[in-house]
Design brief:
The structure is a single chain. This protein is mainly α and about 400 residues long. Helix 6 packs antiparallel against helix 15 and helix 11 runs antiparallel to helix 12. The protein is globular.
Length: about 400
């Protein structure tokens, strides 16, 4: 495959993933307005963030089998079609129940975009550069966060609340066309000499992948706690204006972009994703503990570190580790599906648990997040020490 062609296809894949991320986060910056428009409480409106991940929880495990049958390109086309359809339904509805359904439909795209992306990357870049490309791909959540936090309020004030859904629907349709026109379907693993059939059972028998999935649950819980709850922390706890709170929150995405890329390069150059992930998890635990003790001089520092540690160092390393720990190429999709399921469960639990705890005390919320981050540290140590006699034990 020509180098220019694979990078063009990678760019389209990245734009598609960013669009999925924007769709998920478009509500976070205007949650109080959404609650008022739908006649529900802010806590109920927070469920619209969580239900986005229901499809991910349900489809994570069968996702790899679906990809095997459809192929990565056709599955990506289906994901962008679901994203467009869900946003159109949300745009035309004024009912909370229907908007919940629309968010679940949108969430189908979120359910498998990471698995499709990692599979495509490890096929396109099989001859080298996969970790760097994975690091760049992992910026999609950071870019989406920056866009959503800065663009949602201006778009809402200019064109109305429902315009957020229409804008994302249009972007989804554009991505669908670009995928159809320019992305070439990666070769199946069987075409690369891996002819035995892969199964989810074989992937789940890999204990290192299983424990890594638990670490992903912990770090996803914390990361999306920061992404979705920073606006409430800065506005409700520290008394900043909505615009200022969203600006500070968006810096998580802005700072996360270079650090996700840097982490991918570090993994590529050092070959030590576990070391990088553990350092990031320790930093994340300290970050969580200090949430209620910030001041004007430390707001930006805290957001900067939140971009470096959970999303940049830990999550990028885990995405790089999944293919490395898979016994053979045909199992990469299934390994990612296991990790994704725990990722989506962590995201699903994050917002309602943290918002609920913060409603009584942000110190309680920070302790819950600290415990989750500490759990990630322990689990990463465990998986790093497992399987020392396996071929994959060369990964440090």
């Amino acid at each position: 495959m020509k180098k220019n062609n694979k990078w063009l296809m990678f760019l389209i894949l990245l734009i598609s993933a960013i669009t999925v991320g924007v769709s998920q986060l478009k509500i976070a910056a205007v949650m109080q307005d959404v609650a008022a428009a739908l006649g529900v409480s802010t806590t109920q409106a927070a469920l619209l963030m969580s239900v986005f991940t229901i499809a991910g929880i349900v489809l994570a495990i069968p996702g790899a089998a679906i990809q095997d049958k459809m192929g990565p390109k056709n599955l990506l086309l289906l994901l962008m079609a679901c994203l467009a359809a869900g946003n159109v339904l949300g745009a035309v509805s004024g009912s909370f129940a229907v908007v919940v359904v629309s968010r679940i439909i949108e969430g189908i795209s979120y359910a498998m975009i990471i698995m499709v992306g990692v599979t495509m990357i490890n096929t396109w870049f099989a001859d080298g550069g996969a970790s760097t490309a994975t690091g760049i791909f992992n910026t999609f959540a950071a870019v989406a966060n920056f866009i959503a936090m800065n663009a949602s309020i201006p778009i809402m004030k200019t064109m109305g609340l429902k315009s957020l859904w229409w804008v994302v629907a249009g972007l989804s349709a554009l991505c669908l066309v670009l995928v159809a026109m320019f992305i070439q379907a990666p070769r199946a693993a069987s075409e690369g000499g891996d002819n035995s059939k892969a199964t989810i059972g074989e992937a789940m028998a890999n204990l290192r992948v299983d424990v890594l999935s638990l670490a992903m649950f912990c770090i996803a819980f914390v990361l999306f706690g920061f992404i979705t709850c920073y606006p409430q922390l800065f506005q409700g706890y520290y008394g900043l204006t909505a615009e200022t709170a969203n600006f500070y929150s968006s810096l998580n995405g802005l700072f996360g972009i270079p650090f996700c890329i840097l982490c991918g390069v570090l993994v590529e150059k050092t070959g030590k994703p576990f070391v990088i992930a553990i350092i990031g998890a320790v930093g994340t635990a300290l970050l969580c503990y200090t949430m209620p003790y910030l001041g004007p001089s430390t707001y930006i520092v805290h957001v900067l570190v939140s971009a470096i540690c959970p999303g940049g160092l830990v999550m990028t390393s885990i995405f790089c580790l999944a293919p490395m720990l898979s016994k053979r190429p045909a199992l990469i999709g299934y390994s990612m599906s296991i990790i994704n399921m725990l990722y989506y469960i962590g995201v699903f639990a994050s917002t309602p648990v943290i918002v609920g705890a913060a409603s009584s005390s942000w110190k309680s919320a920070s302790l819950i997040m600290t415990a989750a981050a500490a759990g990630a540290v322990v689990l990463l140590f465990v998986v790093a020490s497992m399987g020392t006699k396996e071929a994959s034990s060369t990964v440090k």
